[in-house]
Design goal:
The protein is built from 17 helices and 26 strands. It is an alpha+beta fold. The protein starts with 10 loop residues before the first strand and ends in a 7-residue tail after the last helix.
């Protein structure tokens, strides 16, 4: 528990008009007046009546002493308190939860695909360099006009619709929502920035500034809670904006203090506290990609280094084995009330496992819990990013921290080679999806990234790796991958839409039978070679991506494998950015597939 910075032990109870009210928060000092017999709602009303009142504290009742309402000038002395103490903060003014959150209006299916961007005045960020490059690409002669429309819609979608905040003269952070959910995921926001990296050097005070702001927002988020996967918009954690009021505040998630007590870990600023190890790997990747694209070291300041130390500490903590001797002392627990077992963690801590050098996770990139604790794709991503981090830290003169990152990355990579490479019942030697260190493994794949299919794309291995090739063959078949839906090879599909990998998806809406277009793009990016057969697979996947939009011209979270008009999440900004990255990559590597 001591690793947290700016730790505030409180949970949002309610958000009445004009006041945000929290349990276990005391606003110490700055007293105005004490009023007896007022509960939190009454104290809020009393505070609103005084222009000089910006906060309040309510205590009691205790024994014969009634509720005490203390009005405050401010809450600068915010301090953790007992559960019988309630703190309140006056809101500065109405906040629109649609601020910077103006997605494209759903359109009826049509062919050719519609071109659908918000009006210029409704876009949330403008990049002249992106617009210039997009205009050049749109002016070319496309083999498939629908792909051109998808690039037009999808490449700028994150900038058009999800930038709640970008750096200005008053602050240096950005906030990027995931699209139709008013929160920022570490993994999603990293992927949302990827297609724009190529423009950052040419536009350092435009798109470059935005990306630097996302890096700093990641740092702030990690320092608030390194176990959380998604965050609400906030300038300060005491004024966090919870647009999905109550959505995840009832999750039972805790951390262990240095004194050994277990404390509720949900606090303002956290949207959801699912420990997904790839979230922290995404923080590392965003910084690495930015530095490689620009050579700029300005985001990597003392606060960033503090976040890096915290990330390394958490990874090492989650390397420890879990068994009868230590299961009560784990630093992270998570449970929630649900009818879906994949939406919670077994016993709050997950399954027991042996030390392997790998890092355990409690949830997958799809936000579902794993069957076994060590997720091989997540560990592969961490191994790659830790090695790159070691190089960046050397450049920054942090030799000790660099060596720590390098050793940790090497331990994880060795753990994958020892425990993550298994013999499948087909006789093939493959990468497992999940292992536990006892010799047990699960074979399959998650549609989101990181994934086994994405291993070459992540830089963990080469697409010619025989183990990867065998893994890929088995994953792209509904006979050997429980989450592959539809036909597998170009010959099997015979001109029809290619099948794809789905997910269990705890919500049930995008689960069994639903293909995630993300998996089609990852497959497309990892097709090996320049043969006629390889190009046939690429073209078939491009055509399938067009069909996956259900006639809307946008990428969705998932679609029913035999009917793409039955889809989930019309506005899925990460998927749109991933499509933009995919088409930009193909324009560089295989332009003959896109242009005449």
């Amino acid at each position: 528990g001591d690793v947290y910075k700016r730790q505030v032990l409180m949970a949002l109870v309610t958000c009445t008009t004009g006041c945000s009210v929290y349990t276990a928060l005391d606003c110490v000092g700055s007293d105005l007046v004490n009023i007896s017999n007022l509960d939190a709602e009454g104290c809020c009303t009393a505070c609103k009546a005084r222009p000089d009142c910006k906060a309040f504290t309510v205590t009691g009742p205790e024994h014969s002493v009634p509720n005490q309402c203390m009005l405050k000038k401010d809450c600068n002395g915010a301090s953790p308190a007992s559960l019988q103490t309630i703190g309140g903060l006056m809101e500065e003014g109405p906040f629109d939860c649609n601020q910077g959150h103006k997605g494209p209006a759903p359109t009826p299916p049509s062919h050719p695909l519609p071109r659908n961007r918000p009006e210029l005045e409704d876009r949330t960020f403008h990049s002249p360099e992106l617009e210039r490059q997009l205009a050049v690409l749109m002016s070319r002669r496309w083999r498939n006009a629908d792909l051109a429309s998808m690039l037009w819609n999808c490449l700028p979608n994150t900038l058009d619709t999800t930038v709640w905040q970008s750096p200005d003269h008053t602050q240096n952070r950005s906030f990027i929502s995931t699209g139709d959910i008013a929160a920022m995921w570490l993994r999603d926001s990293q992927n949302q920035m990827m297609p724009y990296m190529r423009f950052a050097k040419a536009e350092p005070e435009g798109i470059g500034l935005l990306i630097r702001g996302v890096i700093r927002r990641h740092v702030t988020s990690v320092l608030l809670d390194p176990y959380a996967n998604s965050f609400d918009y906030f300038d300060d954690v005491l004024t966090a904006i919870r647009c999905n009021s109550g959505a995840w505040t009832m999750d039972n998630t805790t951390f262990r203090t240095s004194a050994g007590s277990r404390v509720n870990a949900m606090r303002p600023g956290i949207h959801q506290r699912k420990w997904e190890m790839d979230s922290l790997a995404s923080v590392l990747k965003l910084g690495r990609e930015y530095f490689q694209a620009t050579g700029d070291l300005t985001p990597f300041d003392s606060e960033w280094k503090s976040a890096i130390r915290l990330i390394l500490n958490v990874f090492k903590e989650m390397q420890t084995s879990l068994g009868p001797s230590n299961f009560t002392s784990t630093n992270y627990t998570f449970q929630t009330l649900t009818f879906q077992p994949k939406d919670t963690s077994a016993h709050g801590i997950g399954r027991n496992h042996r030390w392997t050098g790998l890092v355990r996770t409690s949830f997958l990139p799809s936000d579902d819990s794993p069957r076994l604790p060590y997720h091989i794709p997540g560990n592969a991503m961490a191994a790659v990013e830790l090695q790159a981090l070691a190089t960046l830290l050397k450049t920054l003169g942090e030799s000790g921290l660099s060596q720590e990152a390098e050793v940790l990355g090497s331990e994880i990579r060795a753990g994958i080679q020892q425990w993550g490479v298994v013999h499948h019942s087909s006789g093939e030697k493959v990468y497992a999806m999940e292992v536990d260190g006892f010799g047990n493994f699960f074979f399959g794949d998650d549609a989101n990234v990181p994934s086994l299919i994405a291993l070459p794309f992540m830089g963990f291995t080469n697409a010619t790796d025989p183990i990867y090739q065998a893994t890929r063959r088995l994953l792209l078949s509904n006979r050997t991958n429980p989450y592959y839906y539809g036909c597998g090879t170009v010959d099997e599909c015979a001109g029809s839409v290619m099948g794809g990998i789905g997910s269990e998806d705890a919500s049930g809406n995008a689960g069994l039978g639903h293909v995630w277009p993300l998996s089609l793009m990852t497959r497309l990016l990892t097709v090996h070679g320049n043969s006629t057969e390889a190009d046939k697979e690429r073209v078939a996947l491009l055509n399938s991506l067009v069909e996956s939009t259900g006639g809307t011209g946008m990428i969705h979270e998932s679609y029913w494998y035999t009917d793409s008009k039955s889809y989930t999440r019309f506005w899925f900004a990460m998927g749109n950015s991933y499509l933009g990255q995919t088409l930009l990559t193909l324009a560089d590597t295989h332009p003959h597939l896109l242009f005449n």
